[in-house]
Amino acid sequence: MNPFFLLLLCAAIIHAQPGSPTAPLEVLRDLTSEKALKGYSTACDKACAVIADSLPSALYYAKTGNFQFWDTKQSDLTPVCRVEPSSSEEVSFVLKTLIDTKCHFAVKSGGHDRTPGSSNADGGVTIDLVRMNEVQVAKDRKSVKIGAGLRWGDLYIALEKEGLMVVGGRVAGVGVGGLTLGGGLSFFVNRHGCACDNVLSYEIVLPDASIANVTHSSNPDLYRSLRGAGASNFGIVTYFTMESFVPPNPAGIWGGQKVFPWEKLSQYLQLNYNFTTNSMELDPDVAAWNSFAYIQAYDSWFGGAQMRHITHTNASTWPEAFQPYQELEGVPQAISIDIKPVSNITLEIDELVPSGYRNIYGTFTYRPSVELEAKVLNIFREEASPVKNMTGFVPAVTIQPISYAAIEKMKKRGGNALGLADNANEGPLMIINTSWVWKDASDDERSYAAYHRFMEKAEATAKEMGVWHPYKYINYAETTQDVWSGVGGDNLRELRRMQRIVDPEGVFTKGGLASGYFKLNELPEGGKRTKEECGGVGDRWETDL
Ligand SMILES: Cc1cc2nc3c(=O)[nH]c(=O)nc-3n(C[C@H](O)[C@H](O)[C@H](O)COP(=O)(O)OP(=O)(O)OC[C@H]3O[C@@H](n4cnc5c(N)ncnc54)[C@H](O)[C@@H]3O)c2cc1C
Question: Any idea where the FAD-binding PCMH-type domain is (predicted)?
Answer without folding.
Answer: 75-247
